[in-house]
């Protein structure tokens, strides 16, 4: 998982197009929103959060101030062409029904989680790519860590259960990134896939605790994990060629390897054959449906998170149906395919 802006990122929605209407997906009858309301409704909040984050980074000593400002600019969702890691900073706002807290508290949690996101992406950069400037990277990561710790300390006293939760999250993250592919988690324990993003739960745990709903904290964390699994599935579909080239664990490649009954990574040709002749992406998308259903039928209602999850499955279904349509056109003959392709241009 590399976190450098413009690089391939392994946790989050990067290069995934939202807003497609899901196919074969049962919608929540009480929730019919326009596409991306889960982002559009909070643009003003995001502007305030990222301005405050940039102001804090600008106070870092040189040259880490300039490096940090360039880094955060690459993740600002309001900047065109930036990496969009929506769940990292929008989660406190998406929990408005489950955790009724003030806007100021939501912004404080979101700001803290911006620094969580940046810190762990720096960590991933160093672990995955061993950059030449690793000393500056680690120094920047330490300052970002201090920022999110200071902000959470301002919200939770030292004896708060929040800090026990945070310790568990960090332990889960460390265990996950050091043994990512062990026991093939996607096929045998899919929720373990979400542990690579465990630190972002600081925002959801914080919201639930500030709202006085500690008894629902575990359930909400599990629902977020279900979304993170589908999020990783969508990202792995987009990145399978890069992951195959560098040997990164990938949910789609894991599924194809299992279907082929091989004990090695599939070749690019085998992956393409599975995608374009054996409808593997259809079956792959179907594996995300139980994760969506967990939110849909949960006793705790989190409408924005449900909408976000629906957009992920919608994109997987859209892409799988697109592949099936291309194959149908090709089967009808070359001329038919030529006319259909040019009719869309």
Describe this structure in words.
This protein has 345 residues and is mostly helical. The protein is 65% helix and 0% strand. It has helices at residues 37-40, 43-57, 64-73, 86-94, 103-129, 134-155, 161-178, 185-188, 201-210, 217-246, 251-260, 268-277, 280-286, 289-296, 303-332, 334-343. Helix 5 (103-129) packs antiparallel against helix 6, helix 10 (217-246) runs parallel beside helix 15 and helix 15 (303-332) crosses helix 16. The longest helix is centred in the last third of the chain and has 30 residues, at 217-246. The chain is globular and about 65 Å long.
Write a brief structural summary.
The protein is mainly α and 345 residues long. The protein has 16 helices and no strands. The longest helix has 30 residues.
Averaged pLDDT, please? 87
Q: Please report which band the strand proportion falls in: under 5%, 5-15%, 15-25%, 25-35%, 35-45% or over 45%.
A: under 5%
Oligomeric organization of the protein chains: single chain
Q: What is the N-to-C order of secondary-structure elements (H for helix, E for strand)?
A: HHHHHHHHHHHHHHHH
Any idea what the radius of gyration is? 21 Å
Low-confidence stretches: 1-33
Q: What is the count of helical runs?
A: 16
How widely separated are the two ends?
Answer: 35 Å
Give the beta-strand count.
0
- What profile does the largest beta sheet have? none
Overall outline: globular
* Share of helix, binned: 55-70%
Class by SSE composition: mainly alpha
Task: Using brief descriptors, characterize the structure shown.
mainly alpha, 16 helices, disordered N terminus
